[in-house]
């Protein structure tokens, strides 16, 4: 397929759609000749490039959330750090493709790091010996810079991120995606088609409004054939760091994530209590495993990570081919 044009009009019907080059929005578009020739409808060579690049990655896991504000990026970094810590012989990496709000560099303590490019691709930033990170945040001038990109350019960036990072041999690649079910999710799913997605972890909070959105996310996964590793309920309780008493922040009026998971026939991986000390470590990019190893959040996390590892290693037959 020819390169995705970056100057497409706002109402571009999609370069691979039946209407490509023929819709009224196409009139005057500099790509009209190319789109109407049918060249843009050919299979995207990016799929093969991504497959080749990720052939050295054993498990590819998407972290999804139905809505923003449920702590998806924090949960991604928590899981990744614990996964790396409890499996020192395995290589873990985080790919932050939350294009509109990349927060992994801050949470994983890599703000201001530079990404280097070599003949074999972009080199990720190392957080620990066996934990690396690539994020769109590294390509922005400052952490407050806004990323305002339209469809084709976002698609192109996702393709580059999936096909041009030189990860080396990896056991786990954890992908932090934007909230909801947007074009970015479709791009990721499309490009990972050849390489295979091991499964998705869906993050929610216990209250009804978040659970409703999670149902849509699970429906999306089923429609695009992404196996669901399970649901993680974040901020299930607030644990006071001083007196250790706990309180519900979001009352689970309908039974919370566990009841929803049972209802939708997906696994419930566990609940993560909110420990403000863990939240502070994430804000400051510190390693909570060394700062507060006895936090109830970390105890719960270790159990969740064990379940994820068990599921990945036993669910090989569920790989999307
Ligand atoms: S000509 Fe192609 S890029 Fe331009 S608007 Fe139409 S489909 Fe989109």
List the defining traits of the structure above.
two-stranded antiparallel ribbon, ATP-dependent FeS chaperone activity, alpha/beta, ATP-binding, metal-binding, globular
Give a verbal description of the structure.
The structure is a single chain. With 321 residues, this protein is of the alpha/beta class. Helices cover 35% and strands 20% of the residues. The chain is built from 11 helices and 11 strands. It has helices spanning 32-36, 45-53, 72-86, 104-107, 151-164, 183-191, 208-223, 256-264, 276-284, 288-291, 296-314; strands at residues 57-65, 92-96, 116-118, 121-123, 125-128, 131-135, 170-176, 199-204, 228-239, 246-247, 268-274. The strands form 2 sheets. Strands 1, 2, 5, 6, 7, 8, 9, 10 and 11 form a 9-stranded mixed β-sheet that branches. α3 (72-86) crosses α11 and α7 packs parallel to α8 (256-264). It is globular and about 70 Å long. The protein starts with 31 loop residues before the first helix and ends in a 7-residue tail after the last helix. Bound molecules: iron/sulfur cluster (SF4). Iron/sulfur cluster is lined by residues 5, 8-9, 12-13, 15, 20-21, 23, 25-26, 29, 31-32, 35. Belongs to the Mrp/NBP35 ATP-binding proteins family. NUBP1/NBP35 subfamily. It comes from Odynerus spinipes. InterPro entries: Mrp-like_CS, Mrp/NBP35_ATP-bd, NUBP1/Nbp35, P-loop_NTPase, YlxH/NBP35. [4Fe-4S] cluster 2 binds at residues 240, 243. [4Fe-4S] cluster 1 binds at residues 12, 26, 29, 35.
């Amino acid at each position: 397929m020819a390169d995705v044009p970056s100057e497409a009009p706002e109402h571009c019907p999609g370069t691979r759609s039946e209407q490509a080059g023929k819709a009224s929005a196409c009139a005057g578009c500099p790509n009209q000749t190319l789109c109407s020739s049918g060249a843009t409808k050919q299979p995207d060579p990016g799929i093969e490039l991504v497959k080749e690049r990720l052939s050295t990655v054993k498990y590819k896991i998407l972290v999804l959330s139905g809505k923003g504000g449920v702590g998806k990026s924090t949960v991604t970094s928590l899981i990744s750090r614990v996964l790396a810590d409890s499996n020192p012989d395995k290589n873990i990496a985080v790919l932050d493709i939350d294009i509109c709000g990349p927060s992994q560099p801050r949470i994983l303590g890599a703000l201001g790091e530079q990404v280097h490019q070599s003949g074999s691709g972009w080199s990720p930033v190392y957080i620990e010996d066996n934990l690396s990170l690539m994020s769109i945040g590294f390509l922005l001038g400052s952490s407050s810079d806004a990323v305002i990109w339209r469809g084709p350019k976002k698609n192109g960036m996702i393709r580059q991120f999936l096909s041009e990072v030189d990860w080396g041999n990896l056991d786990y690649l954890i992908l932090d995606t934007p909230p909801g079910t947007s074009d970015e999710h479709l791009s990721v799913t499309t490009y990972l088609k050849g390489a295979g997605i091991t499964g998705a972890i869906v993050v929610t909070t216990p209250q009804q409004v978040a659970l409703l959105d999670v149902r849509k996310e699970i429906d999306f996964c089923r429609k695009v054939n992404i196996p669901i590793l399970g649901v993680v309920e974040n901020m299930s309780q607030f644990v006071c760091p001083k007196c250790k008493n706990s309180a519900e922040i979001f009352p689970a009026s309908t039974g919370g994530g566990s009841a929803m998971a049972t209802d939708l026939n997906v696994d419930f991986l566990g609940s993560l209590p909110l420990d403000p000390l863990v939240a502070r470590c994430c804000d400051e990019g510190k390693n909570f495993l060394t700062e507060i190893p006895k936090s109830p959040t970390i105890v719960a996390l270790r159990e969740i990570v064990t379940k994820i590892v068990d599921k990945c290693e036993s669910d090989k037959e569920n790989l999307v081919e």
